[in-house]
Specification:
Blueprint: E1 4-7, H1 9-13, H2 19-27, H3 30-41, H4 47-57, H5 63-71, H6 79-88, E2 92-100, H7 101-104, E3 114-118, H8 139-151, E4 158-162, H9 168-173, E5 176-180, H10 184-187, E6 192-194, H11 199-208
Helix pairs in contact: 2-3, 2-5, 3-4
Length: 210
C-alpha cells in the first residue's frame, strides 16, 4: 500500500483549470494569459520564459487577488477529507506543481504535508524571475525523491495523481498512479483512471485496488 501520495494541482486537484487561469480571471487578463498558456503547451515557451512573461502581464497582482483566485477556483470535492484520511493512516501527502509556489503552498492549510511550486518573485512583482527557481516536469521526480528521503520512504512507497504530460515522468518512476481527468499522455501509463469531480472517488481506486 502507498505511503506517500503525490498530487499534481493544475487539471488534477483543479478541475479543468490551472492557477494561471484563475489568477488571470481576477486580473481580467484571460485572453492574454490563454495565449501564453497556448504557446507554453506548444513548446514555444520554456517554463522560465512563461514565468517571465506572466510576471510582466500580472504586474498588478496582489496577495488579495491570489486569495480570491484560490478561494474561487474549481477544486475537486473531498480534498481535505482525503488528506485527513491519509494522515490518519500514518501516511503522507504532498503536492508538486509547476505553478507559482505562492498559490500551491496554500494547500498545506488543507492538510498536505508538503506543497512545492515554482519560486516566483515576491508580490507585487518588482524583481526579475530567477530561472533556476522555475520547475520543469523533470523536477517532479527530483522533488518526489527528496520527499521520500525526508519521510524515510522510497519510490516503491509512492502513488502519483496527475492529468497531463508534465506528470508522465513521475508516473513512470513510481509503481502506482491515478490519471485524474487526464489526457492520453498519462492515461496510457496509469494504474487507474478516474473521470469526475470528487477526489475521494479517485483515492478509493488506490485503496481498493480497483
Amino acid at each position: 500500500m502507498a505511503k506517500l501520495h503525490l498530487f499534481d494541482m493544475d487539471g488534477t486537484l483543479l478541475y479543468g483549470s490551472a492557477a494561471a487561469v484563475e489568477i488571470s480571471r481576477q486580473l481580467g487578463l484571460e485572453r492574454e494569459t490563454a495565449e501564453l498558456e497556448r504557446s507554453f503547451a506548444a513548446g514555444e515557451l520554456t517554463p522560465p520564459r512563461f514565468a517571465q512573461l506572466a510576471c510582466e502581464l500580472w504586474s498588478e497582482l496582489t496577495e488579495e487577488l491570489v486569495t480570491a483566485a484560490f478561494d474561487g477556483a474549481p477544486w475537486l470535492a473531498g480534498i481535505r477529507e482525503v488528506w485527513a484520511d491519509i494522515r490518519a493512516r500514518g501516511e503522507r501527502c504532498a503536492v508538486i506543481s509547476l505553478s507559482p509556489a505562492f498559490f500551491v503552498e496554500r494547500l498545506t492549510g488543507w492538510g498536505a504535508d508538503a506543497a512545492h511550486g515554482s519560486r516566483w518573485p515576491a508580490l507585487p512583482f518588482r524583481e526579475p524571475v530567477e530561472p533556476t527557481g522555475i520547475l520543469s516536469a523533470s523536477a517532479k521526480v527530483r522533488i518526489a525523491d527528496e520527499l521520500c528521503a525526508g519521510f524515510g520512504l522510497g519510490r516503491s512507497d509512492c502513488v502519483a495523481y496527475g492529468d497531463s504530460m508534465s506528470d508522465a515522468a513521475l508516473f513512470a518512476a513510481v509503481p502506482a498512479s491515478v490519471a485524474v481527468n487526464a489526457d492520453h499522455h498519462v492515461s496510457d501509463l496509469a494504474s487507474y483512471t478516474y473521470e469526475g469531480r470528487d477526489l475521494r472517488e479517485a483515492y478509493e481506486l488506490v485503496r481498493t485496488g480497483r
